[in-house]
Specification:
By secondary structure, this protein is an alpha/beta fold. It is 50% helix and 23% strand. The chain has a single domain (2-157), classed as Ribonuclease H-like superfamily/Ribonuclease H (Nucleotidyltransferase, domain 5). The chain is built from five helices and five strands. A five-stranded mixed beta sheet has the order 3-2-1-4-5. It is globular.
Length: 158
């Protein structure tokens, strides 16, 4: 099974591609799409095109994405909602199954505790994939955590 994890953001969107076979997950690729130099609609277009390219190239079975959970800043939540919408549309158009997880659920799956610190999640991502260092930037590490949480969610359901 191929899983894409997406951490949508306003200036940067994290992505990860993981292959999961018989209880073992291996990273295929991860990184970020830097978007800060573009205006609103161009950012959304870049996310859509980049994700379509990943989907066509890797033919994932599943896309995991964080749900919006709580934001203090209405302007930020609107922009992230737009990015999420583009990601969901690209997955739907490409017939990729979607799993939406709250940040609390991702932390719960990763640590057993929904209020874990970001650094703790990053260290667990490093350990889970047997990496030499924590993936950078944070958005890429978050996308990898979403992949892990998506795997845990699937295993829990079966």
């Amino acid at each position: 099974m191929i899983i894409i994890g997406i951490d949508p953001g306003t200036s940067r969107t994290g992505f990860a591609i993981v292959k999961y076979t018989r209880g073992e997950a291996k990273i295929i690729d991860f990184g970020c799409w830097e978007l800060s130099e573009f205006d609103g609609l161009t950012r959304l277009d870049k996310i859509f095109k980049n994700l379509n390219k990943l989907i066509k190239s890797h033919k994932p079975n599943l896309l995991g994405i964080e749900e919006l959970f709580f934001f203090k800043n209405a302007k930020t939540v609107m922009k992230i909602s737009e990015a999420r919408g583009v990601v969901l549309l690209a997955a739907k158009k490409n017939k990729v199954k979607i799993i939406e997880l709250t940040p609390l659920q991702v932390k719960q799956y990763m640590t057993g505790y929904g209020r874990a610190e970001k650094k703790q999640i990053q260290l667990l991502v490093k350990k889970y994939f047997n990496l030499d260092e924590i993936p950078k930037p944070d958005d890429a590490a978050d996308a990898l955590a979403i992949c892990i949480a998506s795997i845990c969610h699937l295993e829990k359901k079966s």
